[in-house]
């Protein structure tokens, strides 16, 4: 590589589906020099859902069909559906018949290669010495890598047609029998890249000995993105989204009332991740933070705006920067004999971890422990079943609630907790629980689900809109009080 001032930039799946519209202002039409940049891309919107399972509804994709296969037809038919969806996706962004034909061939080669692999594995596991479950992690990685390879290849074709010297950088390890680490994979891929004359389009999935999905699951593209930035010594890492990182959801509080963050730090990014509103995966943020690389989150369709910079700089003044909400389940274990007995908390955490349940917050007292968890009702029931078996005399209850978080780099001295409670009372909302940690970066208000949106509006008005209005008021000069004006 011949450029030490480059940027590494990521485009998410939803934005990728609008890549023609996105790349025109970003690269091709006044978007600046296309070189000295690296783009890491996700699969087109919806493709990974079809390959694995739907992220929100959990409807089965190819992976889920294969894992539960009673015959070949379910997963094979699902794979045919993926091929059709991929071809429809690249036809939305490619115009030239030659490019479309090349993209169709690429899809066919990858899909049929994956199909052959799954058939061979199924046949192998029909013998008693081999167990399919031992290979499912690898199959999950193989399938998910198809989506990023497809979008990166099609984007390369699109840019080349527009006159940009784009280079398809496939980190997916397709037909590569080498066992390499992620850093080795990146090193080999970028060894002869000249960023002064080439624009690398990199797959968000990277095959490596660390097995990214075992640590990041579907956040693997951000892991790849951050490691590419760190390994290549990027001056800045950039994530292009379809919206600005703002003080709240404009659909809830009104477009005229939201503020673009503009500047925040990695502490705030971590709190947002905990609330399911990821600016970046927390482990990926850690990679950038340790490498001393600032992260910029921009609106891909507003390229003239610098977006929001995320680094380690402290806040210029204490303030609430963002309000966000997440629907959760309050998972409470009450046991009268818990007082002074160790082990309850550890057992509960083991059950939650075993079922891969994400913990948003936790409270406890003498005889009860409550975890606020972001998961499906099915997994909650499984954890509940485990704990009832472990503690037959305990009372285990589950309730659907909403956690509303007020987040900022520095909340010290604001009395944001008191103001927030007053705002909720004025809105007719009695919070079920409230907590603020000593680090003073977030306050969590737990409400009924039906009160969540109203709580966001009330808290945003009190803690952000009203505070912004106060800071813009002209200050009176107290030293001039009672004095006559000076004569000319």
Describe the overall structure:
- The chain is of the alpha/beta class and 488 residues long.
- The protein has two domains: 7-242, Carbamate kinase (3-Layer(aba) Sandwich); 322-471, VC0802-like.
- It contains 17 helices and 14 strands.
- The chain has an eight-stranded mixed sheet, sandwiched between helices.
- The longest helix is centred in the N-terminal third of the chain and has 28 residues, at 97-124.
- The radius of gyration is 26 Å and the shape is globular.
- The protein starts with 6 loop residues before the first strand and ends in a 16-residue tail after the last helix.
Give the helices and strands, then pairings:
Layout: E1 7-11, H1 13-16, H2 19-28, E2 37-41, H3 47-51, H4 62-67, H5 73-91, H6 97-124, H7 136-161, E3 166-169, H8 182-190, E4 199-203, H9 212-216, H10 220-232, E5 236-241, H11 250-253, E6 263-265, H12 266-274, H13 282-291, E7 295-299, E8 308-311, E9 322-334, H14 344-354, E10 358-364, E11 368-374, H15 377-390, E12 395-407, H16 416-426, E13 433-436, E14 442-448, H17 452-472
Parallel strand pairs: 1-2, 1-5, 2-4, 3-4, 5-7, 6-8
Antiparallel strand pairs: 7-8, 9-11, 9-12, 10-11, 12-14, 13-14
